[in-house]
Amino acid sequence: MVDRANGAPRPVDIRNVVLVGGSGAGKTTLVDALALASGAVNRVGRVEDGTSLSDYDEIEQRRHRSVQLSVVPVQWGGVKVNLIDTPGYADFVGELRAGLRAADAALFVVSAADGVEGVGGVSRALWEECASVGMPRAIVLTHLDTARADFDEMTQTCQALLGGSSAENVLPLHLPVYGPAAADGHRPATGLVELLEQRVADYSTGERRWVPDSPDDTAIVEHARERLIEGIIAESEDETLMDRYLAGEAVELSTLVTDLERAVARGSFHPVLFAAPAAGEGRQGLGTVELLDLVTAGFPTPNEHPVSAVHLANGSKPVALRCDPSADLAAEVIRTSSDPYVGRISLVRVFSGTLHADDTVHICGHGPVTDHDAEERIGGVTAPFGREQRPLDEAIAGDIAYVTKLGHAETGDTLSGTGSPLLIEPWRMPDPLLPTAVRAHSKADEDKLSQSLARLVAEDPALRVENNERTGQLVLWSLGEAQRDVALERLHSRFGVSVDIEEYRVALRETFAGKATGRGRHVKQSGGHGQYAVCDIEVEPAPEGSGIEFVDKVIGGAVPRQFIGSVEKGVRAQAARSVTAGYPLVDVRVTLVDGKAHSVDSSDAAFQTAGALALRDAAAQGRIDLLEPIAQVDVRVPDEHLGAALSDLSVRRARILGTEPIEAGRTLIRAEVPESELARYAVDLRSLTHGIAHFTREYLRHDRLPTQLADKARAGAPVGSG
User: Fold this and answer.
1) Whole-angstrom Cα distance, residue 108 to residue 126?
2) Alpha-carbon distance 171 to 138, whole Å?
3) How confident is the model over 110-143, as pLDDT tens digits?
């Protein structure tokens, strides 16, 4: 199955498979079981103590949860299968999307013991993530060895929630065979019935062996087999096959298998399988062999995963890359991490060409943070194997590998040949919507904080750092509290930087509620050269977005022409500093109407000071309103949660603009919401809708803050409910 001198596989002999599913569904355990069944390892580790194959770092070991993707390659039937284990928690959907970009198909892992919750909430949202990029999928049920597991009920749940308009594209390939009842009455699954082949595999010894089928379940098996055959034929490219089948014509097994594999590869049919780790000293866990067979025979090759790129030199239109080891190099950085001994390590999916150790490559970044071009010589090329790295001479098109010493490479960057630099269209990343204001814990931390945060963002594009000049806060934007906590933990453990979290503040502004007048008098005589400047102004509200509008209406030279600009400069400087509560003044028209000057003591500095004093005096005479930022918010929510979402928005002082159906079972809510009420909305909306709803936000304008909340803001208290 190989055709290269060093034994490297051809692209057609590679399968890149991402495992997705909710947290605790058993993805990492399944990776270990498949590695054991394939002979890649001779024992299975434990997720709980961090000895599993996945690339567990110390943070994951403490949390007993994956927070980053990991790659474990195995060999099966002459095919290299790169198993990409991804986090299941919604905060780390950025890692999931990176895994989707690296993969050509997905195993959707669902716990059979969790009932509807196994595919509801976050798991259902992950299914939609896969569907959005057209990813071929199979469903794998886990935890069949637990007393609460119900294969039939969970299969029906998957059909109802994941099957879309038709449940006939989500059907089991196998049925479980149960062993004798235990003392508690639970009957563990010990084998399976292959529906198409009509044979029974027994796994009770830890190795698959064929056994005679039981006549007790013949009717159940026949019914399930008929449904499966009809589902496969419905997806067949042979439009006459269904008519022939309904007419009683026998369909050859080879035809059914071929049509099944084609339907799975193009993502129109999603088979349901099940798997469990081997018991005792066994090597082959329940269903692991069948799962590996499906992956190698039914999932698409890298040649069937189109990815587009443009030539930077001529700015050509995007063209599909050829998955050909002899073509020009085009690879993408899927994930970056730092090692205290090796430095920056980049996990790379090669889409075209061949990547060799010590190659010089062109690095191209895209986006607001990673917009750069550079050329660097890579260090080693290694094959990922969980936390291990095994040296390689090269990584060919279709494969996944680690490369070292690319100091400029960031997640999402393109690697290409220096003579023909390319840029691969970036994958879609979620917008981080949870703000957390942080400050350095000490002076030593402050010196390293900005650079360390920048390195974290380079590794995880789902994070964003903002230095808010209006509030003076350093804000870390994340997808949720778990991602934020992991980032801050890495900040401390990896870079030795400690931070304190402070109350997040929105950028309020001040404006005049009505007309007011003010006088600025700056007169000082102290023996030497004096200072003399007097100016009278009128202040009135101006249309939104006007900023500070300055008008000169001085008559008779009361303020000399050379000092008119000085008054304006003083007014604008004071407006930027605030006139009452510490927020910048906006949307007012300031008119200079009169003043006085001295032939000797007047100066630019004196009239700047007088202009500032005049504005402060007008503020003391008039009424100042506070303005708060308003965001345009679009919420995509399941219909069953629409009422709760609307009620929650009303509590947040939202102005509902309307609702409209956008797809089956979903509604779009358009609303204008004060930004101070959105600080925790990313977390609260996820909790309210079990992780299914999503929202976007965009700054719209500033509106007047209600009097009661304005009084709180002037007293230094937060104005929002989150």
Assistant:
1) 9
2) 10
3) 888 876 555 665 667 677 777 777 789 999 999 8
43 forms beta bridges with: none
Q: Are 274 and 176 in contact (CB under 8 A)?
A: yes
Please give the Cα distance from 124 to 161 (Å, whole number).
Answer: 7
CA distance 546 to 236: 64
Structure tokens at 259: 């049509």
Helix H, strand E, coil C: the string for 424-484 is: ECCCCCCCCCEEEEEEECCHHHHHHHHHHHHHHHHHCCCCEEEEECCCCEEEEEECCHHHH
Q: What angle do CA 589, 592, 595 make, to 5 degrees?
A: 160
* Closest by Cα among 189, 258, 272, 163 to 228: 272
Q: Give how far Cα 185 sits from Cα of 148, 178, 491, Å.
A: 11, 12, 50
| Global confidence as pTM | 0.85
Question: Is 206 exposed, middle or buried (CB count within 10 Å of its CB: 0-12, 13-18, 19+)?
Answer: middle
Question: Dihedral through CA 422, CA 424, CA 429, CA 432, nearest 10?
Answer: 10
Alpha carbons 163 and 568: distance in angstroms, whole number = 67
Specify the pLDDT at position 3: 42
From CA 576, how far away is CA 574, in angstroms rounded?
Answer: 5
Task: Report whether 438 contacts 497 (CB < 8 A).
Answer: no
Residues β-bridged to residue 347: 335, 402
CA–CA dist 608, 577 (Å, integer)? 14
Token pair listed for 18 = 């991402």
SS3 248: coil
Torsion sign (Cα): 30, 33, 37, 40: positive
- pLDDT tens column, 288-320: 999 999 999 999 999 988 888 887 766 778 888
With a cut of 70, list the residues of the chain below it in pLDDT.
Answer: 1-8, 44-65, 115-123, 125, 164-166, 215-216, 280-281, 313-314, 340-341, 366-371, 386-387, 527-528, 721-722
| HSE, side-chain direction, 13 A CA sphere, residue 151 | 21
Angle at 479 between CA 474 and CA 483, to 5 degrees: 85
C-alpha torsion 34→35→40→45, nearest 10:
-140
pLDDT in tens, 566-611: 999 999 999 999 999 889 999 999 999 999 999 889 999 999 999 9
